[in-house]
Write a structure and sequence with these properties.
- The chain is mainly α and 146 residues long.
- Helix content is 62%, strand content 0%.
- The chain contains seven helices and no strands.
- α4 packs antiparallel against α5.
- The N and C termini lie far apart (56 Å).
Length: 146
């Protein structure tokens, strides 16, 4: 257990990414979906969000896109729980006006982005499974032996 704790839990905290210098206007939040459509894009997704927020991008469309990215994946209970907790915590801090509150809001958004990017893309088999379940529910035969 000691080796596990030392090796896997004793990692440095992820630094706050710097906004991209190449982008000077707020981007379309759907661009984030394209970034999260490839594996290992945690840093790039976080950088995109910092640029978006730094250039005055609206948070509501960003939360909608993050929610969309969650729903298109084969998400598990904890992913939904994390997203909900991040939004609730963000809104809690948004009620205050201080530099700590601004930093906390930013941290919540970055945490949600990094988590979702780290778990994307999945196999996205859930829609197929649901279609099969609906067909079975409606009495359709999926397979017949000859």
């Amino acid at each position: 257990m000691s080796v596990y704790l030392d090796r896997f839990l004793n990692i440095p905290a992820a630094r706050k990414p710097q906004p991209s210098e190449a982008i000077k206007t707020p981007q379309d939040p759907s661009e984030l979906l394209e970034i999260m459509n490839k594996q290992q894009q945690v840093t790039e997704a976080a950088r995109w969000v910092m640029t978006y927020l730094g250039e005055g991008g609206e948070k509501v469309p960003l939360f909608n896109i993050l929610g969309h990215s969650l729903l298109r994946e084969d998400a598990e209970f904890h992913s939904f729980q994390m997203y909900e907790a991040g939004v609730v915590e963000h809104d809690y801090w948004a009620e205050e006006e201080s530099s700590l509150s601004e930093r906390a809001q930013e941290t919540m958004i970055l945490a949600m982005t990094r988590y979702l990017a780290g778990h994307a893309p999945t196999a996205r088999e859930m829609p197929h499974t649901v279609r099969i379940a609906m067909r079975l529910h409606e009495g359709e035969k999926l397979f017949e032996e000859e």
